[in-house]
Structure formats: structure tokens, C-alpha cells
Amino acid sequence: MTGLAKTLTVGQAIGLAITTVVGSGLLVLPGIAYQQVGGAAVYAWLLNALLVVPLLIIFAYLGANFPSAGGVAGFVQAAFSRPIAAATEALLLGTFLMGGPAIAVTGGNYFAAAVGGGRLSTLFASLAIISFAGYVNYQGVKMSGRVQQFLAFFLVGLLASVAIATLVFGNMNVGTGIVPLSQLSTTFPVLATLFFAFTGFEMLSFTSEEYRNPKRDFPVAVGVSFIIVVALYITIALAVQFTLPPNDTSLATAPIVAMLTSIFGKTSGQIVALIGVVIVTTNLIGGSWASSRLVFASAREGLLPEWLSQIEPHSQIPRVAVAWTMFAFAIATIINFLGILPLSLLFGLAGQGFFAVNALSVIAYLKLTRKWWQKLVGGFTLILVVAIMGTFSWGLVFVLGLMLLGFMGNKVRQNSVISSRAK
């Protein structure tokens, strides 16, 4: 059997989406935006929410109509050909290999900050987070989905409570508040930065093969999780810009720490550090789920060794892919500890890879749809994504290099199959 078990419910998928999107950036980006554009920052969050809607429409359509464990690569294969899909798979594999360890190391840093530890504490905590995420996913969709569902709503409730408590008990006269709508144009410098907070929905596409009814459930999961995430972002943004001065030095590093400190004092820093560990851990559970499904799908299609596509017969879980995915994350984390792959480089390459993946998704959508309004949505979204990709500079080498590697790898496999058949 080569198909995955169809056990994923809408509630579990919503939890997965939330924990995949709401990552460590939420602990920093609200402060950075407020620091740069002041009381207009909340408008930047709203504009980004509007800008990402067409992209979500595209993912909802593709996930509902072309469900595949390969996610975006599956969409590209349905639209074009296996060689182009293989190039997409290689891009995704390289992107996940950068992003997964970056998430884990961020969690390790937060843990070290909470306990006052050093670099070794960061390393061991990072590896522990990877191990926990791997264990949850190794148990399969039922356990992973339940954990994600619980942690997602716990996380949203916790962060929303922090923001609301700040608005209720904080000094509302300290911040700048909300500037008039006429100053909307001042938000433009931070739009691209805040767009990173909305990436992650594309990873939900890797779970589309495991829905009981993907055509109905996938769009619902995307839509509901989007509304919850946007509401959380806006609440925190308002709390920051109403209760903190724009010249607060902690805005660029830990705005939520500053929010809690203004109410509960300095000891709240450890609380926020532990919240950061929870955020990062849940984020990695979702990311490693998507990564392992990509490894499984790539092996099933022939780009990776065939034994990585094994499914445990009783549970129908790709446990071999899960185990090797987490092992790869652990190796990359150790390489980061040795100073070879800095955290900033891991995040930078992962972010650029995901933007390129978004562009490929939109191109596949344009090829697979027929209605004029769908073409219009796809064209507008492609312009937006390509415009942001224009800032990558040398990062495009990483993107194109991985795609070329996947394309050539597929070519080599095809030639090998033809040669074996000829014998």
C-alpha cells in the first residue's frame, strides 16, 4: 500500500495550520513594525492579511482538487510534468532542511534564556525539541493532530490573553495608538517584513492526502485558521502600539516581554521565554509533519531512495520518512552549533525558498484553472510574489541550484530505469 491513512479531521487541520503559521516571528515582528512606522503598524498587518487572501484561495483550490502528500510538488506535477515536480521537490527539501533546524535552534535559544544556560543548553534543548516533534509525528496523524489541536488553541488563548491583559491593565497613554487612515502609505516600508508572519499556510498542502474529505475540509481548515491567526496578530499589534513607546529598546527583540514587564515586572521575561519554547515546539511539529510527507512523496516518485516511501502496514504512517527527516534536522542543528550554518542564514534561505514555492504554486494554479476570475486572482498573486522575490539577490542561486539538482536527479533516474528495462 502506498497511500496514507485518511484520518485527518477539520479541527486537527485547523490546529496544524495555526501552529505552522504562528511561529517565532510573532515574538519579534509586532515590535519591529511599530518601531519603524509607529501607530500605522496595525494597518500593515491588515494590508498583509488582505494581500495573502488570494494566495490562500489558490492553496485551498489546489489542496481540495489535487490532494497529495507532495504538497506544492504534487500541484506542479498535476499542472506540468514529473521533471518540473522533481525540481520543486528538491527546492522544498532544501528549504525544509534550512527551516526545520532554524525553528529548533530558536526554541533552544528561548530555553537557554529561561534557565540562564549557555550554548550547550541551546544545543541540547534544540535536539530535545526535534526529538519531541519527531516522536509526536512518529505516532501518526491521530496523535499529532490532537497535540496540534490542543497546543494551537492553548497557544492562541495564551497569547491573546497576554495582549488583552496588556490592553486592560497597561498604561494606554504610553504608546502612540492608531494614527489616522490618511497615513496608510507610511506602512509600505514594513509590508514585506510582516509578510513573513503569514507564510506557513503552504505547508498545510502536504497534509491534503490525509483528509477524509479534502474537497470539503481543506478549504474550511485554511479559511478558519486564517481568521484566527489574523485576529491574534491584530490584537497583539494593538497591545504593542497602545502600551509601549516607539523608542523602547526592547521592541526589536522582545516586544511581548516588554508588554508583560510593564504589567508584571522583570520576572515576566522568563515566562515569555517559556512561551517562546512552546510556540517554537508546536511550530516544528507542523513543519516536520510537512517535511516527512514531502520525503515520503519524493521517495514514492523516485527522487529519493525508495525505502524512504515505506509505510508501516498497521498504522499507514510513513515512519521511516519521519525518522530520517528528524535525523537530518538534528545533523543540521549540530552544524549550526559548530558555527558553519548561522541562524540568520538558515532563516534567510528558508524564507527565500518558501517564497519561490509560493510562486510555483501560483503558476500551477494558472495552468490548472480555466475561469477568467481564477486567472485574474492567479495573475495578481504572481505579480506580488515575484515582486518580493526580486529582493533575494544571491539567494536566487540557492533556489535555482536546488531546482537544477532535482531536475538532473530525475533525469538520471529516468535514464537508469530505461537502461534497466533495456537489459
UniProtKB/TrEMBL annotation:
Top-level division of the source organism's lineage: Bacteria
Asked if the record carries the keyword Protein biosynthesis, the reply is no
Q: Which InterPro entries match?
A: AA/rel_permease1, APC_superfamily
Q: Which Pfam families match?
A: AA_permease_2
Q: How does it sit in the membrane?
A: Multi-pass membrane protein
Q: Major location, coarse class?
A: membrane
| Chain segments annotated as transmembrane | 12-34, 40-63, 84-104, 110-138, 150-168, 188-206, 218-240, 271-296, 317-339, 345-368, 380-407
Where found in the cell?
Cell membrane
Give the keywords, sorted: Cell membrane, Membrane, Transmembrane, Transmembrane helix
Q: What is this protein called?
A: Amino acid permease
